[in-house]
Amino acid sequence: MTNTAQHQPVSLYGFLTPKAGSADILRDLLLGLVEPSRGHDGSLQYHLHEQEDGRFFLYEVWRSREDLDRHNATPLLRATLARIADHLDGTPESYFGAMRSLHPAS
After folding, report:
1. Is residue 103 scored above 80 in pLDDT?
2. Gap between the Cα atoms of 31 and 33, Å rounded
3. Cα(75)–Cα(73) distance, integer angstroms
4. Which of 64, 70, 74, 102 has an alpha carbon within 20 to 30 A of 37's alpha carbon?
């Protein structure tokens, strides 16, 4: 990855499907990440949506891959991800990519 690419906004997004009877727990765990993650350096957007079919959709935009990597290494995120695994039905469907449209300055 070139130095320029490292400093372009990146997005991470995907769907998480709760196990039967785990939707409330999964929702609470994911909601517990929203405000702390929004406060991390480089967070441009961090949103949690609940779909009509019960899946959760997480959408994140970070100033750079480096900022996302720092976020991913935080103790809160690591601990929450470890707890989330017990409440998922299958593997999360996730996508990562470089943002090609300009992100307005905050």
Report:
1. no
2. 5
3. 6
4. 102
Q: Residue 100 is which amino acid?
A: R
How far is C-alpha 93 from the chain's CA centre?
12
Mention every residue, 6+ apart, whose C-beta is less than 8 A from residue 87: 18, 19, 22, 25, 26, 29
The pLDDT assigned to 43 comes to 97
Q: Domains (ranges, CATH) in the chain?
A: 16-98 (3.30.70.100)
Look up residue 35 and give its two tokens: 């405000």
pLDDT tens by residue, 25-73: 999 999 999 999 999 999 999 999 999 999 999 999 999 999 999 999 9
Residue 78 to residue 76: CA distance in whole angstroms: 6
CA 92 to chain CA centroid, Å, is 11
Q: What beta strand segments (E) does the chain contain?
A: 10-16, 43-50, 56-62, 93-98
Chain centroid to CA 12: how far?
A: 6
